């Protein structure tokens, strides 16, 4: 019986390889999650890291609103966040949140500037 189940699962993914890639990326250990709409928790992360983002970008942001994000579980969590910084201008942030027992603060690992709303959030 279980053999037939695996047969149909394999057949389903062979028919639609795009679904397989999506499923494989979502379930890959250490891989990125699906892109999600920003939550209040993600906006709080952005509020805490805004000063560091302005320093790395070399300019002040009048607006700093998280729009979407993806996560990657490592020794803690990497957040890849798309942030609106005014008008049609966006930045992408990679923020590391350590495991609670370490007592470390949020760390802005990297920032990409000159992004648009259409730009995909990818590992950087």
Automatic annotation (TrEMBL):
GO-annotated biological processes: cellular response to bacterial lipoprotein; immune system process
Claim: Cytoplasm is one of the keywords in the record: yes
SUPFAM superfamilies listed in its UniProt record: Cystatin/monellin (SSF54403)
A Pfam family it matches: Cystatin
Domain Cystatin: 27-124
Primary localization: cytoplasm
Keywords for the protein's UniProt record, in alphabetical order: Cytoplasm, Immunity, Protease inhibitor, Thiol protease inhibitor
Subcellular location: Cytoplasm
InterPro entries cross-referenced by the UniProt entry: Cystatin_dom, Cystatin_sf, Prot_inh_cystat_CS, Prot_inh_stefin
Gene Ontology terms: cellular component: cytosol
One Gene Ontology MF term: cysteine-type endopeptidase inhibitor activity
Signal peptide: none
Family under the similarity heading: Belongs to the cystatin family.
UniProt name for this protein: Cystatin-B
Species of provenance: Cyprinus carpio carpio
């Amino acid at each position: 019986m279980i053999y037939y189940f695996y047969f149909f699962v394999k057949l389903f993914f062979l028919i639609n390889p795009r679904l397989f890639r999506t499923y494989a990326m979502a379930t890959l250990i250490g891989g990125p999650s699906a892109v999600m709409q920003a939550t209040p928790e993600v906006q709080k992360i952005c509020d805490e890291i805004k000063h560091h983002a302005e320093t790395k970008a070399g300019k002040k942001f009048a607006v700093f609103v998280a729009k979407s994000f993806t996560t990657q579980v490592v020794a803690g969590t990497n957040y890849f966040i798309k942030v609106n910084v005014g008008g049609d201008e966006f930045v992408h942030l990679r923020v590391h949140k350590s495991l609670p027992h370490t007592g470390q603060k949020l760390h802005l690992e990297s920032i990409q500037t000159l992004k648009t709303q259409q730009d995909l959030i990818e590992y950087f």
